[in-house]
Design goal:
By secondary structure, this protein is α/β, with parallel strands linked by helices. About 50% of the residues lie in helices and about 15% in strands. Helix 6 crosses helix 9. The radius of gyration is 24 Å and the shape is elongated.
């Protein structure tokens, strides 16, 4: 396994968040493949019980255990874990109180679910705690079990609260195992070993949520990572044509003559009809390009690295994940 310089050297926990519909899980999966490339071992963690990882890799639903789900380019391995908060709480009860059987009994009568419902901050601590344990875990020889961990995290709107575990448990416990556990988690999440990445589209609402999320993380002193701009469409026309289209400055007659000369229209009427439809398409493309350029300028205000991922013509299937992983690596994000 050869060393490779990336924008995130030293980062071992990559938290991926984004507004719903931006392709957050797809980007998290592709990032895991990119990080594993070249013989590394990466754990991809899901925390929302949606089985999104299983869907993007087209595999059966994941149980609450770490299992290998993909081979990365160059022979690396991607493992996955779908965290179940109830199972995580039972592990916690056994770890800190030695009450495995009692924990099972509590689960049967619904007290575990009751506890995490009335104290949602505790649920987040359990989920982030399981992830942090995977980051810290070592094998019998003292080596890290995983070279990196990627978390498919909650949406941007609640990412700061989800990660800010110390304040979340302040009202639950000021001393004791819960507080100690939260402090350990915070020690990982707030360290230079962690980066929180945002996934967005070049649209006004997800861009604004991304900028708000970056600001919120910084205020909470949590580590901001990069911005992955997903589903980017190429600019298909020359700059001069786009500029003219934005001004609706088209000579339809000249366009119709060009269509006839190229053999793309039969007769003047057909050429005019095609020219009008084509001009409408060009105008729509130009105005979308102007909007996307504006949103890129807005994202630049965050002053963090950003990466552009293409719109996949055939959708985000398994082949598409590997294509995105290569794009992520080529831009230095992994």
């Amino acid at each position: 396994m050869s060393a490779r310089d990336t924008d995130w050297d030293g980062v071992r926990l990559h938290v991926v968040t984004g507004k719903g519909g931006t392709g957050k899980t797809t980007v998290a999966a592709s990032l895991a493949l990119a990080l594993a490339a070249g013989g590394r071992k990466v754990l991809l963690v899901e925390v929302e019980a949606r089985q999104g990882i299983a869907q993007v890799f087209d595999i059966p639903p994941l149980p609450y255990e770490e299992r290998k789900i993909a081979v990365a380019p160059g022979g690396g391995d991607v493992y996955a874990l779908a965290i179940d908060p109830e199972e995580a709480m039972l592990e916690y009860v056994e770890m800190f109180y030695g009450m495995k059987r009692a924990g099972r009994a509590l689960n049967k009568i619904g007290l575990v679910d009751f506890a995490t419902t009335i104290a949602p901050g505790l649920r987040d601590v359990l989920v982030t705690g399981k992830t942090s344990e995977a980051v810290r875990r070592r094998d019998g020889s003292g080596r890290r079990v995983y070279d990196a961990v990627v978390m498919d995290a909650p949406p941007t709107g609640r990412i700061t609260r989800f990660l800010n575990v110390t304040s979340e448990v302040a009202g639950l416990a000021r001393i004791g195992p819960v507080k100690n556990h939260a402090d350990l988690v915070r020690g990982v999440v707030a360290s230079p070993e962690t980066a929180v990445h945002f996934v967005t589209l070049l649209e006004e609402m997800p861009v604004q949520e991304t900028l708000d999320g970056v600001k919120s993380l910084r205020a909470a002193k949590l580590p901001v990572g990069g911005i992955f701009i997903n589903m980017v469409r190429p600019e298909l026309l020359p700059a001069a044509t786009i500029a003219a289209a934005m001004k609706d400055d088209f000579d339809l007659g000249e366009l119709a003559l060009g269509l006839k000369a190229a053999g793309l229209a039969d007769g003047a009427a057909d050429a005019t009809s095609i020219a009008e439809a084509l001009a409408e398409e060009i105008s729509e493309h130009a105005h979308r390009t102007r909007l996307e350029r504006r949103e890129k300028r807005a994202l630049a205000e965050a002053k963090v690295p950003h990466y552009e991922l293409p719109l996949l013509a055939d959708g985000a299937d398994l082949t598409g994940l590997y294509e995105l992983a290569e794009t992520i690596r080529s831009q230095g994000a992994a």
